[in-house]
Amino acid sequence: MASKNREPIKLKSSESKFVYWTTKNKKKTTGRLELKKYDPTLRRHVTFKEAK
After folding, report:
1. In the list 3, 39, 48, 49, which could disulfide-bond 11, CB 3.0-4.6 Å?
2. 3-state class of 16 per DSSP?
């Protein structure tokens, strides 16, 4: 049975239109997520921010 605290979120690239989908625990991480991940369209690591 899946936990009800985890919800899918969209991580949008700061420099292109590429998007990653992931989940996060809304109770433990209340703020917006910001990660450095690989962007295949630019072929380098960039900052990805949580989008609505």
Report:
1. 48
2. coil
